[in-house]
Amino acid sequence: MEQKKAHIVSLGCPKNLIDSEVIASILSRGGFEIIPHPEEADLILINTCTFVLPAKEESIDEIFYMARMKKEGKCKHLVVAGCLPQRYGAILEQEIPEVDLFLGTGEIPKIANLIKCLEEGKPEGHRSFIGKPDFLMNASHPRLISTPSYSAYLKIAEGCSNHCSYCVIPMVRGRFRSRGMDDILKEAETLAEGGVKEIIITAQETTAYGRNLKGKPTLATLMKGIASIDGIRWIRLLYTYPVTITDEILETIAEEEKICKYIDIPVQHIDDDILQLMNRRDDSNSIRDVIRKARKIIPGVALRTSLIVGFPGETSEKFNRLLEFIKETRFDHLGVFKYSQEEGTKAAKLPCQVSEEEKEERRNIIMEEQSIISHEINRSLTGSVHEIMIEEKSDIPGYTQAGRLRRQSPDIDGVTYVNAQEKMPGDIINCKITSADEYDLYAEEVAPSQS
Predict the structure, then answer these.
(1) Is 66 within the bounds of a domain?
(2) Deepest in the core among 30, 139, 263, 310, taking most CB within 10 A?
(3) 58 exposed, middle or buried (CB, 10 Å; 0-12, 13-18, 19+)?
């Protein structure tokens, strides 16, 4: 009998990607071959995102695209999982009859049985399974890693308890809950045994790790534990919250050679009135303090942030305050979201909503300013020597390989093109920066490679 084939589409953030990898493993153990081409699949599963309007639109577009493929191809069943059905399950079931099964974020452990029932034609007429969003993966949930074999995300917690006024995450992912430290270290060891050299720590708020566990283990202790694992060469920290970045965390990053001198700190805004309306737990002084402290404790640290422009009540004066903060702080990497008016959130009901045209203009202004800052920072690196993790062959003339420095996170930051002897993906070599543009760097190999 020909083996059944499944194609998985993962949308949204790295945290969602990990869920997709768990789902892929479950389907694989259930008899499916996971394939990259949807037109050859018997089952298509879309793991969706609903964080902001563009993410919802991307999810809906993908659902309709795959629905057409189901109609025209060999696909027998179309399954939609994750945040979108968790939020809109009943509506989606009515509006999109082409989908055979809608699964919320808490249904991952049941997915094999639910798909088996679907294949057997039961329960007839029941297409939505949207329960409490309480799933928390652990090391007993194998993953089919979809990132390159040398780099993997490691989710240390699930959900969020901050209740920022613009955000739907607590609705679709539940309250914040940490995994046990031993369990996380067990998974990290498994990843290392499988050839992973770079661990990227992720959660809705990594710096809140352990606060709901007995004994309250800390992120710093966890990072030290991961750093002790043989085979792991780089450890990268994402999704930190300014007010929960402790001295212990910063000192651990500074002291541990394996931990990249790189911190992702989504500050969202700098105006105190806006921060208060956002229901953020920090203010402009605490944000500036943690940035100063990070740069003092970790010389040369690369800082990434994310911002929201066009939040209700963001006047020109408040926006200019944010722009001046960007000029003054000079983040190494920066992303900007336009505020999305999400139903069910407190911010959606606030007065003084900003027009879409104004949001777009403000986003462009900040990104133009950031491109200047980024170019200046990149040019200042010329002549310095760094480790680079090789990822693929380069298509840039004069540069044989493309990869990333410790200061560059995959997919969201720039890349480094290097002229080097032929290498394998995942090899780590030393390189000297020779030139730079706004977001990418150019280099030459300067020392024997290490694999």
Answers:
(1) yes
(2) 263
(3) middle
The domain spanning residue 294 has which CATH number? 3.80.30.20
Q: Are residues 376 and 390 in the same domain?
A: no
45 in Cβ contact with 82 (< 8 Å): no
Please, which residues have CB within 8 angstroms of residue 131's CB and are 6 or more apart in sequence?
104, 106, 107
> How many domains does the chain contain in total?
3
Question: Which residues constitute the domain of residue 32?
Answer: 4-129
Is 451 a member of any domain?
A: no
Task: State whether 207 and 322 are in the same domain.
Answer: yes
Least confident of 125-134, 159-168, 218-227, 276-285: 125-134
The length of the chain is 451
Q: Are residues 353 and 398 in the same domain?
A: no
CA pair distance 340, 359, nearest whole angstrom: 10
- Over the stretch 170-207, which tens digit does the pLDDT of each residue have? 999 999 999 999 999 999 999 999 999 999 999 999 99
Residue 129 parent element (H or E): strand 128-129
Exposed/middle/buried for residue 8 (C-beta within 10 Å: 0-12, 13-18, 19+): buried
| Packing angle, helices 14-29 and 111-119, rounded to 10 | 60
Q: What is the pLDDT of residue 2?
A: 74
Same domain, 236 and 336: yes
Q: Where are the alpha helices (DSSP H) in 8-79?
A: 14-29, 53-72
Average pLDDT over residues 371-390: 97
pLDDT of residue 449: 52
Q: What is the pLDDT of residues 333-361, one digit of tens each?
A: 999 999 999 999 999 999 999 999 999 99
Whether 144 is in a domain gets the answer no
